Amino acid sequence: MSKRRQSRSPSPADSTQPSQKVVKLELPATPVALPPRTPPSSPPPRTNLRNRDISKPFSLTEKTLQMVWSGCHYELREMKGCLGGAVDRANEHSEKTGAAWREFKRLQAEEREAREAVNDIERRMMELKDEIKAVECQIDAVQQKK
């Protein structure tokens, strides 16, 4: 018989651990104090949370929250900058493509007009050939009567 893993359900031993308090944080709509604009090559300093002592409780101080908040705003500004550049390039490409498309359509219309003109000229040439043949026939008829 194969043994199945059963999902662990809370046991009475688990209930002896202290319950963790849930703290609701309200962040201001605008950042408290944004650091001056730094070049993209130097992001804001980050806190090292990986090497902290896990035996001590972790608390978010106002300074830590401000650092996280300003870091988020820094990242958001960078993403907006990248996105803005991409949108600008796309708009420029779209304008160039649109201009090229309009030029293509204009040339297509000119070509269509030129073909129609050539067709009209060829049609008129055929009419003139028919008229020339009719006149030649009349000339031949007049010469035969003489």
In words, what does this structure look like?
The chain has 146 residues and is mainly α. It is 58% helix and 0% strand. The chain contains one helix and no strands. It has one helix spanning 62-145. Keywords: Coiled coil. Residues 33-46 have a biased composition (Pro residues).
Question: Secondary-structure blueprint of this entry?
Answer:
Blueprint: H1 62-145
Would you report the number of β strands?
0
In whole angstroms, the N-to-C terminal distance is: 127 Å
SSE topology string: H
Helix content: 55-70%
State the helix count: 1
β-sheet strand percentage: under 5%
**Would you identify the regions where 5 or more consecutive residues have pLDDT less than 50?**
none
3D shape: rod-shaped
Radius of gyration: 43 Å
Largest sheet, strands/sense/barrel:
none
Mean pLDDT over the residues: 74
Counting helices, strands and paired strands, the structural category is mainly alpha
Keywords: Coiled coil
Coiled coil: 104-145
Region (Disordered): 1-55
Biased composition (Polar residues): 8-20
Relevant terms:
mainly alpha, 58% helix, 146 residues, 0% strand, coiled coil
What's the gist of this structure?
With 146 residues, the chain is mainly α. It is built from one helix and no strands. The chain is rod-shaped and about 130 Å long.
